[in-house]
Design goal:
Helix content: 55-70%
Number of helices: 10
Distance between the termini: 30 Å
Strand content: under 5%
Shape: globular
Structural class: mainly alpha
């Protein structure tokens, strides 16, 4: 999917379900593009597309974990990688119980989500979007702890939240070390 097509999809989704999730997605996309440009190894335009579409399942209206599977189903025929990022962005440890919010899927759908995640190998773009999801709010780039507190206030925490946060911190450290950068400095946060 091209940047133009992805932005068009996001605009349609915003008309269907307006909210701060759209600006969050655009900010995550900008962060992904900036970081990827600095790596000199991956495609910054793909990074931007994947990050701006990570929450596209919200086009169907307010939901919690359901938006991950809704996004996967919506994008699967258009761009399989973007579809899988809709699944992977909320689960850095491939554990569906890490989701902060309601489990608003049927048992069958939860099992499907879990099965899809377990069979899928995360790559650079999955890890990048997991990271950028924690560095972008609807108002701009933020320290991940600021984003996490915002999500915790809205959706609560659970027994797996610290495990999830530790993994995202690990992803940040790995990116900083592997690509010889300081992402927070790069993003001005």
């Amino acid at each position: 999917m091209t940047v133009r097509e992805a932005l068009k999809e996001l605009k349609v989704a915003e008309r269907l379900n307006p909210g701060p999730w759209v600006d969050h997605s655009l900010n995550a996309g900008t962060a992904a593009r900036i970081i990827t440009t600095k790596t000199n190894r991956y495609d910054p335009e793909k990074a931007y597309v994947y990050a701006i579409l990570h929450d596209i399942g919200r086009r169907n209206g307010f939901s919690h974990i359901k938006h991950t599977l809704d996004g996967y189903h919506y994008l699967h025929e258009m761009d399989k990688k973007a579809a899988y990022i809709c699944l992977s962005h909320s689960f850095p440890n491939k554990n569906i119980h890490e989701y902060q919010g309601e489990m608003d899927l049927s048992d069958f759908e939860l099992m499907k989500l879990e099965t899809l995640l377990k069979a899928y190998d995360y790559d650079y773009y999955d890890r990048l979007v997991q990271l950028c999801d924690s560095l972008a709010s609807g108002k701009g780039f933020v320290k991940m702890e600021v984003r996490w507190v915002d999500v915790a206030i809205r959706n609560g925490i659970n027994d797996f939240t610290l495990q999830k946060w530790k993994k995202v911190k690990e992803i940040l450290a790995t990116f900083n070390e592997t690509y010889h950068m300081n992402i927070e400095t790069l993003l001005g946060i």
